[in-house]
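Incident log, structure service

09:12 report received: a user says their structure output differs between two submissions of the same chain.
09:20 pulled the input from the user's history:
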Amino acid sequence: MAYLLGIDIGTSGTKTVLFDEKGNGLASYTGEYGMQQPKNGWAEQHPQDWWEAVVDGIRAVLGKSGVDAAEIAGIGLSGQMHGLTMLDKDNKVLRPAIIWCDQRTAQECAEIEALMGGRDRLIAITANPALTGFTAGKIRWVQKHEPEIYEKCAHILLPKDYIRLMLTGEYATEVSDASGMQLLDVPGRCWSDTVLEKLGIDKSLLGKVYESPEVTGVITPKVAEVTGLKAGTPVVGGAGDNAAAAVGTGVVRSGRAFTTIGTSGVVFAHTDMVTIDPLGRVHTFCCAVPGAWHVMGVTQAAGLSLKWFRDTLCADEVAVARQMGCDSYDLINKQVAQSPIGANRLFYLPYLMGERTPHLDSDCRGAFVGLSAMHQKKDMARAVMEGVAYSLKDCQSLFGQMGLNINHMAACGGGAKSPIWRQMLSDLYGCDIMTVKGEGPALGVALLAGVGAGIYSSVPEACDAAIQYGDKCAPDADAAEYIKNYEFFRTIYPAVKDVYARLAHL
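09:34 re-ran on a clean worker, output below:
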C-alpha cells in the first residue's frame, strides 16, 4: 500500500492529511495562525507561520498514523490563491505576504487595465479583468509604494509555492494557481510576455510553470530531518484551493461542476475548451487536469450571510444548541422548514461584502426587501438561505450562456450539510446534487501526487478510484416556484444599484 500526503495552506490555518491510495484519510492535523490588518482593507500574513504549521502538520500525521515515511509516494500542495510573497536573493522574506482578501489595490487595477490598452485586451490574455484580489495589482502596489523593497526582490511566489521552496529548494508554480496572478496567458498556459512587459515585471522573478500533477521537486535532506519525511519524496505542482477541491470532488470531466457554500460561495465547472466571459463576470482559469480549464463564479458572502444572521439574531438558538449538544444551524434549518417557499414574499440580497459574480460591484451591500410586520425570524432565515441560492443560480446561469451544460453537480462546504439548502439549489439548477465524502482540497492534491508518482495514470482515473459520493437530491415539484421567485430576485439589484453607489459616498 502506498500513501499520499495532501497539504492545504489556507487563510486561517494549514490542514495536513495523510491518505491511502484509495482516498481514505488516515490522519489529519490543522495548524492555525492569524491574519494582520495594519490598515482598513489590508490583509497580510507571515510566511513563517505557514511553514511552522506545515512542519507541525507533517510531524503530527506521521505520528498519528504510524505510517513509515518511506511508504509515502508523493506530496501535493494546495492553498489560498493570489497571495504575494516576496523574497530577496537569499530567500529572505522581504515583507509580510499580501493575501487574497486584501483590498488596497483598486487604483493599481485601473492602472493595469489602462496599461494593457483596456479591460477587453487584458481579459483576452489573462481571461479575467483586473481585480483587487489578484497578485498583479499587489505587485504594482509594492512597485509604487515600497520601491526599496521591490528593488531587493529576487523571487515572487504564491503561498503554497513558498512552501514548495521550503520543502524542495525549487522555485516553481503550476497553472491553476498561476492563473490567479493575472500574469499568465491562460489559453496558452504560460507566463504572458506581453503582460509582464507592460507591467515592468522581470520574468526571472517568477517560478517555472508546471501542470498540476507534474513532479516539481523532491524533499531535501534538511527538510527530511526537520519533518520526518524521507529525502527524495516527490512533490507535485498541486493546485489552487478551488482547483484542488474540484479534483477532491471528482469534477474533472466536462459536464461536471460543484457548488461550495463556505464563507463565500463558489460554482465551479470543468471544461475541456477555453471558455471566457468577455465581460469578466466569471473567472476562467487553467484547471488541475492537464490541457483543461475551469469556469468559476463567486458569491462573496454565501455562508457568511447565514453566519451573520445566526450571530446577530439567533442568540436563543445558539444557547439552546449548546444545552442540547447540537449544531445551532440545525435548529435554524428546522425554523426555515416552517416558512413557505418565498418566505412570505421576503427577499434577501446577500451582498454583505460587495459582490463578484455577476455584478462586479464592491459597493453593493446586503438588504432585506419586502420586510413587514407579519414576518418572523423563520421567514428571515429562509429569505437568507434563498437569497444565497439565487446568487449562486446567477453564477450557474452564466455558465449556460457560455455554452457549458452541467449534468453532474457536487456540493461541499459547511452549507452543503443542509438538506434544505441542497434542495433549493437542485430545484434552481435543474439537476441532481450530491454530497461528497472526503477532505476536499487536501484529497485533491493528494490524488494529484498519486498521478505524479505513477499510482494512477491520469487525474480522472485517480478520482474514479478514490472519490465517494453521499446523499443525493433531485429537482422536485417546488422547482417552478423557486424559478419564479429567482426571476423577481434578478430585478432587485438593477433597481437599487445607484442607491448603493450613493451610499458608498455618504
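09:41 both user submissions now match this output. Likely a transient worker issue. Closing.
09:42 reviewer note: The CA atoms of residues 456 and 462 lie 5 Å apart. The mean pLDDT is 96.
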